[in-house]
Specification:
This protein is of the alpha/beta class. The protein has 14 helices and eleven strands. The chain has two domains: 256 residues, Aldolase class I (TIM Barrel), CATH 3.20.20.70; 65 residues, Non-ribosomal Peptide Synthetase Peptidyl Carrier Protein, Chain A, CATH 1.10.1200. The chain is 42% helix and 13% strand. Helix 10 crosses helix 11. The relative contact order is 0.13.
Length: 358
């Protein structure tokens, strides 16, 4: 594969929707809500995806109901933003896609990748990789119901397992989605059977890109640093990459990747004060969306990841995950983030979380 240079990285686009910088934030079940997406965008992500939603849930969802209104919350400054959908039945899937269109999402993404057992057991997500006919019927129905101006994309894993049958089914679905008018496909380098264990096979991404030619392919899997993002594009030839677990509590990864992609040195990790500003901003955004009490609890799952950038990682982590009120958050910020100093890059060991459903 020819060596890329910074100047030869093409801005990303899905059909007529311009994305620009080709490092984007993936859909993360339970994580990629409006606050997380907003922080990713303000740190350089050209595009973000809403956490995956079930078609059944969307069809019955009432937009103005206070308890669930946050699921379809989009702000004016975060476009383009994608809505990811998961389900079992083609007809209901297309109805869910229509709901995402009505909510104002710029791109509709179909999830054929989630490896979670309860999802597979209900014939959703990665299960569809074992049934190409149903998968392609979902794709066609979704493409038919979504207006032409709105791109439809697909998220896949490299197969259910490593058998030849699974490989054949993967390429049958891939080729069929392209024929159906899909604008881009994201490929995760693990199988459904692997879930989150073992290495993501980047060489498979290179094979997929060579197979499809000019069609847009994004890569996913084991992207925990800016260098990972650059290396995946360099090594595989994919047109963009989607950062999943590596972006939780780490919006700086997009800034850092932008620097590398511009030919500049890798920036220093965020300082303690820079970390504090982002945590405070995250709390403010979560309060706007959920209210103060729920925001304090919601941020705890992000706390483990924010703590990884602090030089007193273990002590900060224990404090962050116990915070249950705004007073608790203010107290721990004063305790650990009141004196500026250098931060650190997160250890890869902290990414043992199964938040990505893709």
């Amino acid at each position: 594969m020819p060596t890329r240079t910074i100047d030869t990285v093409t801005p990303l686009a899905f059909g007529a929707v311009s994305i620009g910088f080709p490092v984007v934030q993936a859909a993360l079940s339970g994580y990629s809500d409006w606050p997380m997406r907003s922080l990713a965008r303000s740190h350089g992500a050209g595009y973000t995806l809403h956490e995956v939603l079930l078609d059944q849930f969307l069809v019955t969802l009432r937009d103005k109901r206070k308890k669930t209104s946050h699921f379809l919350h989009i702000s004016d400054d975060e476009h383009p933003v994608g809505g990811q959908l998961m389900g079992a039945e083609p007809e209901q899937f297309s109805a869910g896609a229509s709901k995402l269109v009505q909510a104002g999402f710029d791109v509709i993404d179909i999830n054929f990748g989630c490896p979670v057992k309860k999802v597979i057991g209900r014939c959703r997500g990665g299960f569809h990789l074992s049934q190409p006919a149903v998968a392609l019927e979902i794709v066609r129905r979704t493409r038919d119901v979504v207006p032409d101006a709105i791109p439809v994309t697909v998220k896949m894993r490299r197969g259910v397992d490593d058998s030849q049958q699974s490989r054949d089914q993967f390429f049958e679905i891939l080729d069929g989605t392209i024929d159906a008018g899909i604008s881009a496909v994201t490929v995760h380098g693990r199988t459904v059977e692997q879930r989150y264990l073992g290495a993501s096979r980047w060489e498979f991404l290179a094979e997929v890109k060579q197979h499809v030619g000019a069609f847009t392919i994004l890569g996913s899997g084991d992207l925990f640093s800016a260098e990972d993002c650059w290396n995946m594009m360099q090594d595989t030839g994919v047109d963009g990459v989607t950062v999943a677990r590596g972006a939780i509590g780490n919006p700086w990864i997009f800034q850092q990747a932008a620097a590398l992609f511009s030919g500049m040195p890798l920036p220093d990790p965020p300082t303690i004060f820079q970390q504090r500003l982002v945590i405070e901003r995250h709390f403010d955004l979560a309060t706007q969306l959920y209210g103060e009490k729920r925001a304090a609890l919601t941020l705890r799952k992000f706390g483990v990841k924010y703590a990884a950038s602090h030089t007193q990682h273990e002590r900060v982590k224990l404090a962050l995950v116990r915070a249950s009120s705004k007073a608790d958050w203010l107290s721990l910020l004063d305790q650990f983030y009141s004196v500026d100093g250098p931060g650190q890059y997160p250890s890869r060991d902290i990414h043992r979380v199964q938040g990505e459903c893709g």
